[in-house]
Amino acid sequence: MEEQKKEMTFEAALARLDQIVRQLESNNVPLDDLMKLYDEGNEMIRFCNKKLEDASSKVKLVKEQNGVPVTEDFEG
Fold it and tell me: Which residue in 11, 43, 56, 68 is deepest, having the highest Cβ count within 10 Å?
């Protein structure tokens, strides 16, 4: 799974998380599979959160102070 996560995009992880949620909500999943899906879902959440944190650390806001552009870190 770690190898796959390196190649996975944020959008792909989010889509997989959506699939997992739909499966869990279906109430047709055996307990063992449910636990595996739950664990995978948590991994997808951590992966997405990391991608968002990485992206927000790279985003800079540009403001103008007295006619001069000033950048500051984005704090979402």
Answer: 43
Tokens 């792909």 label which residue?
12
Per CATH, which fold does 2-73 belong to? Helix Hairpins (1.10.287)
pLDDT tens by residue, 4-49:
556 899 999 999 999 999 999 998 999 999 999 999 999 999 999 9
Rounded-to-integer distance, Cα 74 and Cα 9, Å: 22
Going from N- to C-terminal start, the domains of the chain cover 2-73
Task: Give Rg (Cα) of the chain.
Answer: 18
Per DSSP, the three-state class of 70 is strand
The SS3 assignment for 33 reads helix
Q: Position 32: which residue type?
A: D
Q: At what angle do helices 10-25 and 31-58 cross, to 10 degrees?
A: 150
